[in-house]
Specification:
CATH topology of the largest domain: Rossmann fold
CATH architecture of the largest domain: 3-Layer(aba) Sandwich
Radius of gyration: 26 Å
Number of strands: 11
Shape: globular
Order of helices and strands: HEHEHEHHEHHHHHEHEHHHHHEHHEEEE
CATH class of the largest domain: Alpha Beta
């Protein structure tokens, strides 16, 4: 399977994990895999509820790659059937059902994106409709008989909704059981997911045992904080880095994280060991370390040359203060001349009063010259205006 010892494999596989249930079981299966020349079966399920992935989604995908690196079978499971239910995790209301058309379209997008990290030749892409759709009503009833409503209501989100009197639809209770049956159908050795998936993953262990199978090992990954370093990465919060974004945009966003977040991002978003990360952060200036982090991540989703160009663009624009090549152009009525109003209308400040405050603070440049007074722009034409890290080409 691999030239690494079992201890070395465990170190590689457990890097960045939030919890492993149980490490001794994983050790034993790795030993047996070596003896039997049988790769472990590693499953991660994704409900295709959104068409685009961000770096937060890739934390678990990268751990799939680590198992793949050691020769194990990685199953990227698209929950086209469970997606029709909608994962109730963290929800205080019932999810609106997705149409089959939406599920299929999102699933195709996912396939294209995950292979930026995973090796397509070593990845099984399956849909759980393959075994869930053919289930007869009797089989579904028997599956439900293996778990109690009381146990399901122990789940945090169900428990909270029940106490609050918020509705819990019957089909939502089926979600953990359907996910568990996926593990039965696939005879999984390991299932992974975010920390918010722990309940579902543990149900899988119990249901597998009831079907006479060795219970799967559960590995949970942390929920990645977004660029603000506080809230979890989310498109709705605007603190995300999309994996299909242009290299320069990815680099710009990654360079905005705090120095304190770098160890976390290195651990969860790169293949570097903890020791390598610690050495790098000790030897490099924080800006250089952050540039290396940005290059590594951009390379994963684009190319090394794209990463180098993106880093050079960031240095040129932010560090050296040069005008960016992709400067956004804003056209305004030529009657708007006073600089604070121009700044606000161009979207560089949220209000005219805030623009005036930035002017007084010396944060504004017009055509490379610092402006601190409420002057009028001289005449209609093009002006390059900079406020901090924001740039606009204003055409009057």
């Amino acid at each position: 399977m691999t030239a690494l010892s079992v201890d070395e494999q465990l170190t590689y596989l457990t890097k960045g994990l939030a919890e492993l249930i149980r490490e001794e079981d994983l050790r034993e299966r790795l030993v047996q895999a070596e003896k039997q020349k049988r790769p472990l079966r590693i499953k991660v399920g994704f409900d295709p509820t959104a068409p685009d992935l961000h770096l937060g989604h890739t934390v678990v995908i990268r751990k799939m790659k680590h198992f793949q690196d050691l020769g194990h079978t990685v199953i990227f499971l698209i929950g086209d059937m469970t997606g029709l239910i909608g994962d109730p995790t963290g929800r205080n209301i019932t999810r609106p059902p997705l149409s089959r058309q939406d599920v299929d379209a999102n699933a195709e997008t996912y396939k294209a994106q995950v292979f930026k990290i995973l090796d397509p030749q070593k990845t099984q892409v399956l849909m759980n409709s393959q075994w869930l759709e053919p289930l007869k009503y009797e089989e579904i009833v028997r599956l439900c008989s293996r778990y109690t409503v009381a146990r399901l209501l122990e789940r945090d989100d169900f428990s909270k909704r029940y106490k609050e009197g918020s509705p819990i639809a019957m089909h939502e209770l089926l979600y953990p059981l359907a996910q568990a049956y996926d593990s039965v159908a696939l005879k999984c050795d390991v299932e992974m997911g975010g920390t918010d998936q722990k309940f579902n993953l543990l149900v899988g262990r119990e249901i597998m045992r009831d079907y006479g199978l060795a219970p799967q090992i559960v590995a949970t990954l942390p929920i990645l904080e977004g660029l603000d370093g506080v809230e979890k990465m989310s498109k709705s919060k605007g603190n995300y880095v999309g994996i299909t974004e242009p290299p320069a945009e990815m680099m710009k966003k990654l360079m905005s994280i705090s120095d304190a977040m770098m160890p976390r991002y290195f651990e969860l978003l790169t293949d570097l060991s903890v020791a390598e990360t610690q050495r790098l952060l000790k030897e490099l200036h924080p800006r250089e370390a952050k540039l290396k982090l940005g290059r590594m991540i951009v390379t994963d989703f684009h190319s090394a040359s794209d990463a180098d160009q993106a880093a050079e663009e960031w240095l040129r624009v932010v560090s050296r203060g040069e005008v960016p090549e992709d400067l956004e152009t804003v056209r305004l009525e030529d009657s708007i001349r006073r600089i604070d109003k121009v700044i606000a209308k161009a979207g560089l400040a949220p209000s005219v009063s805030e623009a005036a405050r930035k002017l007084k603070a010396g944060a504004v440049e017009v055509d490379g010259e610092r402006v601190t007074d409420l002057v009028n722009l001289a005449a209609p034409g093009e002006y390059v205006i900079r406020l901090g890290k924001l740039w606009r080409k204003v055409v009057l």
